[in-house]
Amino acid sequence: MTSQLNTTRGTALYVGAILGPGLLLLPGLAAAQAGPASILAWVALLALSGLFATVFAALGRRLPSAGGVMGYVTAGAGRRAGLVTGWSFLAGVVIGAPVVCLIGASYVVTTTTARALVAAGLLAAVLTLAARGLRASAAAQLLLVGLLVAVVLVAVAGSAHAAALAHWTPFAPHGWMSVGHAAVTLMLSFAGWEAVAPLTTRFADPARQLPRVVAIALAMTTAIYLSLAVTTIAVLGPAAATDVPLAELLTKAVGSAGPAAAAVAAVVLTLGTTNAYINGAIQMVGELRQGGGRPAAFLAVIGVTGAAGLALYGFGVVDVAAMVELPTALFLAVYLGAMVAAIRLLRGRIRIAAIPAALAVAAMLTFCGWTVALPAAVALTVLAVSRGRRPAAARRPGLRPQPVA
Length: 405
Description:
Distance between the termini: 21 Å
Helix content: over 70%
Largest sheet: none
């Protein structure tokens, strides 16, 4: 039997779902795109994260056995919309896994070719673990979160002495529209609320515990994200536009040992987070394939796609910013489907929260440029091949809405 969650452990799991290796790279990418004005993108996304947290918690309570975001969208928007959401999520994992590995590799080596090779090695290690059915335990995942929080706290507190007011000017060197592009880049750091929504069934008293857990988790992630974003700009200034902002902050905090500490943390976090996401995607593949064995074909697709993407990066055809944009567009499509479904499923103030969240996600999709063609292509492909079919998840009684406690 699955053990019940208390408030402390539930909060830790929620925080762990939001924080990840994105913190190692995205503050630098956002600073490169919008300069100090990228802080506005952080603030806007933190507010949006609060809406996501509220909506997904409500969906988890209303559909406690829905099998995740695909089930929510199926219940609220129909079978085909659910399929589009499920496959968009899987495509995001396929394309995003090598990107996360590349983030970790950037802290280990400096040259483009070496980063591609190290990232390929990290991806191979994760796929090997997944093929053997191994996954990080909940305790291990929480340990990874603790490691990330500790590293960020050392970086922020230790480098604060180097902050300078002059680093905040010019505030918007690339224009105000660049804030929208930075928000799209940062969105990859805010995916995760959908992953923990099913945990609502594990609380003894969800009506009492869940609001407290969500509030604490939101406060913690807001403090961590905002402190790192502000410190990156205030301390590094123009040098904030780097692939390794945390290493730069740690260098100012603890000296020459900083990059080495950041590299160790980056590798551990990359392996743990990528393993968790791939195993979650494997469960969704099982839903789409009506159960069955471990989908080796899915792991092979990740391997082949990852090798191709990392090769393009290694030869200088694409940069890391472009690689981040692809899974971000797909996860935005997933969130848009979930928010639209929530508008149809939920009532009262929670439904009102889903409306601005859906509008905000739709607005960010307009800043995705050509990458929006990727979720569009997934949608068209799924709709073309799904006619006359019914996924296993749609036939299961667990998809029927349950009363909110």
